[in-house]
Amino acid sequence: MKSEHRIVVLGAGYTGLLCAIRLARRTRRTGVRVTLVNPSPRFTERLRMHQVIAGQELADHQIPEILDGTGVVFVRGAATAIDTESRTVAVDTPDGPADLAYDSLVYALGSSTDTSTVPGADEHAVTLNSPHAARHFAQKLAELARTGGAVNVCGGGLTGVEAATEIAESHPGLRVTLISRGEPGPLMNAKARAHLYAAFERLGITLRVGAAIGKVLSDGVELADGTLVPSDACLWTTGVRVPALAADSGIAVDERGLILVDATLRSTSHPEIHAIGDAAAVRQAWGQVHGTCQSGLPVAAYTADALARRLRGKSVKPFRFGYFHQPVSLGRRDAVIQFTHADDTPRRWFLGGRAAVAYKETISGSPLKMYRLSKRIPVSASLSKGGRATRPGASAR
After folding, report:
1. CB neighbours of 54 closer than 8 A, spacing ≥ 6?
2. CA pair distance 137, 144, nearest whole angstrom
3. Alpha carbon distance 77, 35 (integer Å)
4. Model pLDDT for residues 340-382, shown as the tens digit of each residue
5. N- or C-end of the chain: fewer Cβ atoms within 10 A?
6. How many C-beta atoms surround the C-beta of residue 2 within 10 A?
7. For the chain, percent of residues with pLDDT exceeding 70
8. Beta-carbon contacts of residue 72 (< 8 Å; ≥ 6 apart)
9. Are 211 and 182 within 8 A, CB to CB?
């Protein structure tokens, strides 16, 4: 007779790591074994990747060290297949292939920037998908800065804004152009957006707004209308994709490959599988949650608590979440914080300047502090549960 309940967590990003640590503490002395799988032993601070391309060195956080004292078993490897019938995960490890058996599976494989939608992007543009690529790009930018080169940043979302401003501030000799189909900061109110645009002007960033990209070339970006925006380097930050592992394994997914989940974040096709972070199609009454660390950490904490409760035979309430803010760094000396309603639409309050810098730094550094505290005490990961917008009976948007 099986003596322990085996929980396997796939992915040690922000969500998977918190879920594993919290699960281990919640299920201590209850006959539960938690295993965390990740290709790299180093924890990647994705919230700080724009700092890496600007040449800043980040702290080396090793996942086994973060897990120290939790009892979580760390397996270095990449999941290649999930057999939902036998409940095993095939993992490609440095020592060869291995199969991990599970009773409950937490699927926390995050998303990555998608370069497949525009010709030439995969060949001629760099993404922030890996620290190695980011560091290599940082070296190239440093070389270009000495000769006064040009850089195109494609995508006016928050990642593109943070990358463009970080590059321009760190390398004032570079000519930085931000190319965006829509207006940067679309979910900011007028005053917050004015602060954003003032930062662009101060840093000398050229904006190409309303520009659809036709293809990426070795010497620039060709817009849909045929205009060439020359550059010596190109950073691609627009569009995301998730691994095909869930869909290939027969787990029910939506049109984007996100795992379909119920109100308690269990797979609608395989209830023993829980999906968190960018991998899950999480809906609230106001709409679908989009992948951010702000939403991912509450999802991870909730899933750990829900799993632990179920193992003790207790009921689980539906997940509730609402957005609270949009923190955006504008280099190291400026930032803008847009406070939001539960559905991520802007409130009239925002914060800018040095106070916003301190606020953003607190947010960026909070996950690692949360991991340390979560080993000992139940730490809240939610800034907001959405208030009226997520209460039972709230109307769907």
Report:
1. 138, 141, 166, 167, 169, 170, 171
2. 10
3. 12
4. 999 999 999 999 999 999 999 999 999 999 999 999 988 888 8
5. N
6. 8
7. 98
8. 20, 21, 23, 24, 34, 35, 36
9. no
Residues 261-268: contacts with CB under 8 Å, at least 24 apart: 263/318, 263/319, 264/306, 264/316, 264/317, 264/318, 264/319, 265/299, 265/302, 265/303, 265/306, 265/319, 267/107
What is the maximal distance between C-alpha atoms in the chain? 69
Range 330-345 average pLDDT:
96
Q: Using pLDDT thresholds of 50, 70 and 90, give the confidence band for residue 1.
A: very low
The residues facing 266 across adjacent strands are 274
Q: Which residue has the tokens 């391309």?
A: 53
Question: Taking a C-beta distance cutoff of 8 angstroms, is the pair 338, 346 a contact?
Answer: yes
What pLDDT score does 92 carry? Answer: 98
Copy the structure tokens of residue 109. 């494989």
**pLDDT value of residue 394:** 66
Q: What pLDDT does residue 370 have?
A: 95
Nearest Cα to Cα of residue 62 among 54, 52, 74: 74
Whole-number Å distance between alpha carbons of 100 and 242: 22
